[in-house]
Amino acid sequence: MKGMTDATTLELLDFVSRRPRTYDETMDAWRSHCPRLLVWEDALLAGLVSVVRSEGGSRVELTPSGKAALRRRKRDRVPIV
Question: The domain spanning residue 35 has which CATH number?
Answer without folding.
Answer: 1.10.10.10
